[in-house]
């Protein structure tokens, strides 16, 4: 009976203000999760959860020495957290201050705009493939790439095949590095990306391909590569590299990973070669 009375009192206190409060907190947590999704911060958070569970278990099992050591470790982590998460914290504050905290990710663009973007990227890639012009084009999705954009040269121009082709003209000031697209705008060019350290990648692959895979390992972005030596087209996503793509194959991959409602588990055609 006392439990029912307490429950009735709590329900009486639950009003529209409480609902709004819960929704705001849920939205903020969701946006924070989107900011760190696909980054190394996720692994750090998993490590902290393991430490918290181990600390609680050592207390329950009366492992006093182990518990004391874990508590000291947790205390040191509280001090170290701002340093460890410095890139993520900086990016989150920049998004809030810049008004991008409420911005739609690329995969939530209108279907017509997204189709137009894919067509422009495909048109540019096919022309650069025919002329063997090396290129690295990144399409941002849920994970913010602001730290890489800041390290490049700001462009902030509407994406078009002609703009992308001019960016990667050999010996042009911006041809070295990656061009990063957010929404329907080319945010920056000459961006430096992290190289993959995977030993599974073929030794014949150059810096562009390793940078594309490296970025896809740390984020959910798509990275399209045009080989300067062969003109072959590849795409890196979620740590995998799909090589020797023709126009239809690249289009299908882009649609699969960008268009709303498309399944990422769809079987790939036989002409795609993994890694």
Automatic annotation (TrEMBL):
Keywords: ATP-binding, Cell membrane, Membrane, Nucleotide-binding, Nucleotidyltransferase, Transferase, Transmembrane, Transmembrane helix. Its EC number is 2.7.7.85. GO terms for molecular function: adenylate cyclase activity; ATP binding; diadenylate cyclase activity. GO terms for biological process: cAMP biosynthetic process. It catalyses: 2 ATP = 3',3'-c-di-AMP + 2 diphosphate. Pfam families: CdaA_N, DAC. Residues 86-247 form the DAC domain. InterPro entries: C-di-AMP_synthase, CdaA, CdaA_N, DisA, DNA_integrity_DisA_N_sf, DNA_integrity_scan_DisA_N. The keyword Acetylation does not apply. The chain crosses the membrane at residues 12-32, 44-62. Belongs to the adenylate cyclase family. DacA/CdaA subfamily. PANTHER family: DIADENYLATE CYCLASE. Catalyzes the condensation of 2 ATP molecules into cyclic di-AMP (c-di-AMP), a second messenger used to regulate differing processes in different bacteria. Probably a homodimer. This is Diadenylate cyclase. It comes from Desulfotruncus arcticus DSM 17038. The gene is dacA.
